[in-house]
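Hi there. Long-time user, first ticket. I'm pasting a complex I've been working with (about 488 residues overall). I'd like to know whether the download I got is complete or cut off, because the file seemed smaller than I expected. Thanks.
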Amino acid sequence: MTYCVGMLLDAGLVCLSDSRTNAGVDHINTFRKMNLFERPGERVLVLMSAGNLALTQTLVSLLRERLATDGPNLYTVANMFEAARHVGDCLREVHARDGEALKEFGIEFNASLILGGQILGEEPRLFQIYAAGNFIEATRDTPYFQIGEAKYGKPIIDRVIRPETTLDEAAKCALISMDSTIRSNLSVGLPLDLLVLRTGALRVCSHTRIDAENAYFEMIRTRWGESLREAFHALPSPDWIPLA
Amino acid sequence: MTYCVGMLLDAGLVCLSDSRTNAGVDHINTFRKMNLFERPGERVLVLMSAGNLALTQTLVSLLRERLATDGPNLYTVANMFEAARHVGDCLREVHARDGEALKEFGIEFNASLILGGQILGEEPRLFQIYAAGNFIEATRDTPYFQIGEAKYGKPIIDRVIRPETTLDEAAKCALISMDSTIRSNLSVGLPLDLLVLRTGALRVCSHTRIDAENAYFEMIRTRWGESLREAFHALPSPDWIPLA
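Hi, the file is complete. Here it is re-exported in full:
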């Protein structure tokens, strides 16, 4: 599996993805799930993917091939809505090519994507794109999307993330959310890609590859667990339970 | 959906279940998912269920019918292993009766159970029983089971629960785990059943039905969220992210 999260804040975008893929527990590999499309000063887009790796890799190859063509591509589309449509269209091309063959082997066409970014002339935007190529856009009410193993790390995001959250706090929240997921689910693992896009910068502000040696993530792993246990012990226990 | 958790501690058993059922978001009802089988001083068993309500209710009716018969039943089985076998056998009877008919309507035979308790002559034991009637037993390494919407509330249990955890602390942890689940998933809801069985007591020590008026759960709801946010803000933010 996979865990990716994208957060749309007033200050910009924070995206975090893991890199574990598995085809059964005896077939675990490392593949990055974050792809960048950047023309500094003009546009910056990030695409994160979960699902069948053969499908999502094919999609990304197709998107990159298109960059060199005259047709619509991620370097030429006028805005992020058109970018989401283009990604959806390319995913439908993959489906048209591979969908039937997979079905014959009983394999589901399983792909989900988060597309975020900013193109000159509009604010940063964030989309979740489904296997059918349709998509939804994040709003101030729901300023984040998750794909893959989303449930373990959802409670902390629900409690912390607001559009006003700063980029560094959002990055911290994303890493805590990832830590909770990694601890409870073997199918999500290091290294991580943490990307920050500041509103208006139109280029990558920070792209950090986080492995087991990363001191900040190590601090999160250790201290968040301690903090949770401290917070847990600080709450009064129910007094109606007879202990003896 | 449903969320139920059972914890096996040195001091006894803590079980918590919600009561929301849904057949689509426009068909939401309240059904308790915790069933008690008690002969004070001799045995006490608790069964929690998730999955298709028609199946799990049929199972419980069958188990209760059997109590009045000479065949094996939950009041006569010699130990908890035999109790788990008996529940598994009854579930297979339900499958033999209903499985084919459901399949014709494309409905999965979906049922999962947690069975815990103590029978005179042995320590408390805890089992997770699958739809096929097979089961696993909790150990000191993995002293808890969850069924239903298990993922949201798993991280706090993984961090806190050990066999040495006291019953009141375990009850607090179960309620925090439930609160995280309810906040992030509409398909899990109040009221809750919280049951505590103390090792050796061979009867229910505490059975609390928790609704929105329950002051302790209201305290958990409010203060756990605050504690998490405080713990979150107390951790340093990453300092490599350029904020402007």
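A couple of notes from our side: Chain B is about 35% helix and 30% strand. Chain B touches chain A through 52 residues (CB under 8 Å).
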